[in-house]
Input
Amino acid sequence: MSTNKTFVIDTNVLIHRPDAILSFRDSEIVIPMWVLEELDRLKTFSDERGRNARQAIRFLDTAGQKGNLADGVKIENGSTLKVVASQPKQIPNDFFQDKADNKIILTAWQIQQNGGGQVFFVSKDINARVKATALGIKAVDYEKQKIDITKLYTGFSSIDIKSESYTELREEGVIPWPDDLPSNHYLLLHDRDHEDEIIGRYNRRDRTLEYVDHKMQSVAGIRPLNDEQRVALDLLLNPEVELVSLVGKAGTGKTLLAIAAGLRQTLEEKTYKRVLVSRPVVPMGKDIGYLPGAKDEKLSHWMQPLFDNLEFIMSVYHRQNFKQPEQLIANNIIELEALSYIRGRSLPAQFIIIDEAQNLSPHEVKTIVSRAGSDAKVVLTGDPYQIDSPYLDANSNGLTYLVEAFKGQDIFGHVLMTRSERSHLAELAAELL
Output
């Protein structure tokens, strides 16, 4: 019996990452014919799934030009790529063949029955993995871009310092710092002689700790209510930090702070031309076209949570000529856009907020962040425990992947927000339900 590893790839893996095949080195990679059928069905979609399906098909077509995919073709990572069309004559335990998923699983089962060595069925679909396991096949998730959510970088830490250092930082604004920390890491500092904590931001280039005003004034009428929000606002208002991720549960103020910071830097400081706000407003496989009305009317249904934040800001942020969110939109101060329309655009000098970013795959996040033009800032917010996509989870979504990928970069800042400021009821709901 062969001791080689054989990986049978499910369709959703290629939709998650079109070049996922290259992740499996020095092995045999099998693409069931039914995967090609599903890719063919999905390629006409106008969303990210359609684009990824087309990209995966092009990848397979390029590989097929080097030989016969039925016999196996060597690819650049040392593996052999095959397309398998046959199905077993005997179906195990009356296993139904009415679904493409089951036919893909049966391909893996047949290879294993024929002595194909170590056979692994790779799928992002947990139910498909359970079914494969029931047939005695080793089923695994695609984990190339997985992050351990329990060890996600927080962006800050709390320590004790000497009273002399505490006083010097508060009075001088900067002190040398001996410890090597990621760029833009924040320290919550306290000592025995002072009741208040103060916050310092680590400057890795100068190896210094810079004082962050713990009593910072309101931003567009919004005042930070805790240290996590102060850290978030400091990142959002820092023009040298071009990419910010705010991760936390509902009610921690992620989106509210991002919009407030964007408005201030657009209306008052003129740092950016406009605030562009978007979110994964469309369920995978559908477009906003199935809703009635023009584009702005359709978007209003999906963007209502953002309107709620805007209405609250406008109630406390008193600007002449701007009393309602609609006035900001009409004057092109704020633009609401569906994510599907951002692809292909270049977005210079804009404050870009991507809300609910936990519903994006790593490939989608890469696509969006790469749209940022010169002098732009990108802010991603989301709760990795509130994911709607069936093929993403807290460990594999694009938001958490970005946090670990960019950690330590000078232009990146991150904060994990845990304190809800909505209400006691909202806090209990987030914890208990």
User: Anything to note?
Assistant: The chain has two domains: 5-140, 221-432. Confidence is low (pLDDT under 50) at residues 282-288. The longest helix spans residues 48-64. The two ends are 51 Å apart (CA to CA).
